[in-house]
Amino acid sequence: MAYSKQHPEPGDLIEIKRQLYQHWALYLGDGYVLNVTPVDEGAPSLLVSTASIFTRKAKVKKQLLKEVVGNNDWEVNNKYDRSHTPLPVKEIIKRAESYIDTEVTYDVLGKNCEHFVTMLRYGESVSDQAKIAIGSMLAVGAAAVVSTVLVGLLRGRSREKEY
């Protein structure tokens, strides 16, 4: 059973805790959210990020919060309010509704579900999840370069000893 002890208000950001990532939606009111889903109508919204990675497209849908959440925990998480000023609620909802049933570009690092809903709430796309992923990839890349250089140096030294 999905869990949250909070009652969202229109314009709130909803963070849905999936196993490997967080899915984000924007609360519209009356139990509905706006979120990006796979373009494939047959794919469940629970697979949005996985399916959309490969298609690079997503569809914006208005769905019941309980359908999008499934059995996952969720919470209202307007964490960017500390650093960004939310737009007026009427403007957030108007902007959100203009996207219903449209297809949008999807990129897990640059235009993901979190970027989309923060753009609606603040007028600016933000995603800590993407920043963390990019930082991890850079760290892995740097580690790979360093280990390649070290292996090269060690091989060079061992060759010197052989001769």
Question: Could you explain how this protein is built, in words?
Answer:
This protein is an alpha+beta fold and 163 residues long. It folds into two domains: 13-126, endopeptidase fold (from Nostoc punctiforme) (Alpha-Beta Complex), CATH 3.90.1720.10; 127-163. Helices cover 41% and strands 21% of the residues. The protein contains five helices and six strands, in the order βββαβαβαβαα. It has helices at 48-55, 65-69, 89-97, 113-122, 128-162, and strands at residues 13-17, 22-29, 32-38, 57-64, 73-76, 103-105. A six-stranded antiparallel beta sheet has the order 5-1-2-3-4-6. A hairpin with a 2-residue loop joins β2 and β3. α3 crosses α4. The longest helix is centred in the last third of the chain and has 35 residues, at 128-162. It is globular. The termini are far apart. Mean pLDDT is 78; it is low at 42-53 and 130-146. Belongs to the H-rev107 family. Keywords: Acyltransferase, Hydrolase, Lipid metabolism, Membrane, Transferase, Transmembrane, Transmembrane helix. One of its GO terms (molecular function) is phospholipase A1 activity.
Number of strands: 6
Main structural class:
alpha+beta
Q: How large is the share of residues in beta strands?
A: 15-25%
Please work out how many helical segments DSSP would assign.
5
Spell out the CATH superfamily of the largest domain: endopeptidase domain like (from Nostoc punctiforme)
The level 1 CATH classification of the largest domain is Alpha Beta
Helix content range of the residues, please? 40-55%
Name the overall outline: globular
Q: Please compute the radius of gyration using only Cα atoms.
A: 21 Å
Low-confidence stretches: 42-53, 130-146
For the biggest β-sheet, the strand order reads: 5-1-2-3-4-6
End-to-end distance, in Å? 68 Å
SSE string, helix = H, strand = E?
A: EEEHEHEHEHH
- The structural domain count equals 2
Assembly classification:
single chain
Family: Belongs to the H-rev107 family.
InterPro entries: H-rev107_PLA/AT, LRAT_dom
Transmembrane segments: 132-154
Protein name: Phospholipase A and acyltransferase 1
